Amino acid sequence: MSVEEMAAPALVAECRHIRPEEATKYPCGVSKFPITAPGNRISNGWEAAKHSLPWHVFLMMYDSPEERRGEQCGGSLIRIKPANVTDLVLTAAHCVKSPRTLMDHPVDRMVVVVGVHDRTDPRRTKVRVKKFVTANYKGDKGGKENDIALLRLKNGVPYTDYTRPVCLPSKSDKLPVGKECYVSGHGATFMLNPASTSNKLLMVDVNILTEEQCSKDMDPGKPFNHSIQFCAGSNDRSARAGDSGGPLVCKKENSFVLYGIVSFGSNDARYFDRSGKYTFVPPFVEWIEQMEKQLPPSDEKLPVDAVHEYLTQNEMAQIERNKTLNAMKKPTRVAQKPVALSPSEYKCGVPSPEYPILLSPTGMNRIVNGWEAEKHSLPWMVLLNSPDPYNKHVTQSCGGSLIQVHPGNRTDLVLTAAHCLKKTADSPDKKPSDISVFVGIHHQYADDSVRKRVMVQSYKIHEKYDPKQFHNDIALLKLEKAVPFSEITRPVCLPEQDEEIEVGTVCLIAGWGKTSHHATILESELKMTTAPVADFNECSQNLPITVYEEQVLCTKPESRRGFCYGDSGGPLICKQNDRWVQFGVVSFSPQRCATTFDKYARVSNYIEWIVQQDKLLPGTKEEFPYEDLVEYRSPMEIVTGTRKPSSVSSPWLSRF
């Protein structure tokens, strides 16, 4: 075989040009690529006190025998009969099955880490899986019904201070609405990078929703069986990517009982704050007991001294120092050896007194502002770069959107904020030829972005723009070359003149701006987040400037999500039926990023102005070459020579 034949096939980044006769098939505001929220992670939780959840296990499902990469999940040590050892783990079926084919994952590529706190601890205790069984799991199409799996470990895990099973509920137990319940996991906490999971075990308190509340909280049209599934958590306090299969436990008397298994959440970015969805354990208790009898027994019991206490680097360093202390001095910290418990000493669902559960955060929760957009899922997003009028060596960046006034299969119009082009009344006017517009990009520093730069031919700032008051903060750009509609470049829809958007509507913001007030650089990849439309009277109070409702639209900074420096000019888009409509242009916020109501130029107030300016600005004669509208390829896609599908694995699994 030749070298050429042996090499991995190169990824061909195709971007099909839309012919004029096909224009009606590609309406504005409709993206080929899905607009997604990140997967399931413990959100707004805190680090659990180490070993305080001794039933929690960390599952690794490797892609290959080399065991370098794979998916991660959570799970729970359970027991059927009284004893001081268990070889059973309960998790989600989708953790151990292929999301596409529903084929079983090879058991020889599955590892369970018990007594885990830090999943990267080199001393962590690993146990192999001997066999597993799932219920009649129906996958995504079946609403993830019967999302439960029982694993038999090769080695029985002794009960110690660090490893104990959680209690199983009674098969007749009802939904624990109003009870004290918690979810735990090693899932991602940072929405801007949902693939980055937490090394430390996290937990969060969640409320159980009634069946009626759960029905209202479901994504439209998604099947759900309330007899074996339930909803828990809200307001961004729930499980998310990497927490799949993990336990939802509720306190019953002095024990913790396993009532739920993390299953899935909303994939719709507009409803990211919706509750998590769980498999209800009580209806499966008989199934668990029956399957336990059918699974082959474990080989042998894990040695007690194989179960390790997690020690921080400071604790390990202190232990080493203690070895050198004078015998008269008492060491302040010694490594504890695990002690096997007798059946009489053990009670399920109760952690060791040495490691009490931390039931509330002791420090600030990580602020979650947004997440990386699925590449090209917002094909109307553009990036504007121009030199600072006072310092040519400094580049000013803003967002913008491709819009369309007349039917066709291309556009030369970009909508942005006036202050992106003129910050103050005294600022010199920017030359159109100094303004670069990058279309169809995802990573602003990637090689493909250079090919997708279009210069500005002319622009118009609203004639009544007031830089001090941010009145009429809107501008229209005419590009030198019209951008053809493709899979990565399409216009967003515009609302009707004076069209209203209902207060409370959850909309999307996107941009390459900073992720916090203290950040020093802009983001490389396009980020997005959600924000609900706010009442104008509420958002206009206590402002140092005067704003008018016909000009300004506001959003609430729920969970401190909002825009920041570098996002100016970008679109606020809201979904109407199957299309995304731009109702706002990012304008200003009187305080630090995402700490107060964000303000936008109300697009519906300017539709007639936009149409008029399009007629007045000189027309574009050239078209941007569509062969330059190439798909963005990540470094991993380039190395492997394969395209990463938008949903290769279940969105509720996380990579490690």
TrEMBL record:
The Peptidase S1 domain, residue ranges: 42-293, 367-615
InterPro entries: Peptidase_S1_PA (IPR009003), Peptidase_S1_PA_chymotrypsin (IPR043504), Peptidase_S1A (IPR001314), Serine_Proteases_S1 (IPR050127), Trypsin_dom (IPR001254), TRYPSIN_HIS (IPR018114), TRYPSIN_SER (IPR033116)
GO MF entries: serine-type endopeptidase activity
Gene Ontology biological-process entries: hemolymph coagulation; proteolysis
Name of the top EC class for this enzyme: hydrolase
The enzyme's E.C. designation: 3.4.21.84
Keyword Hydrolase: yes
Pfam families according to UniProt: Trypsin
Protein keywords: Disulfide bond, Hemolymph clotting, Hydrolase, Membrane, Protease, Serine protease, Signal, Sushi, Transmembrane
GO terms under cellular component: extracellular space
Top-level taxon: Eukaryota
Reactions mediated catalytically: Selective cleavage of 103-Arg-|-Ser-104 and 124-Ile-|-Ile-125 bonds in Limulus clotting factor B to form activated factor B. Cleavage of -Pro-Arg-|-Xaa- bonds in synthetic substrates
The UniProt record lists the keyword Chaperone: no
Protein name per the record: limulus clotting factor C
Organism from which the protein derives: Trichuris trichiura
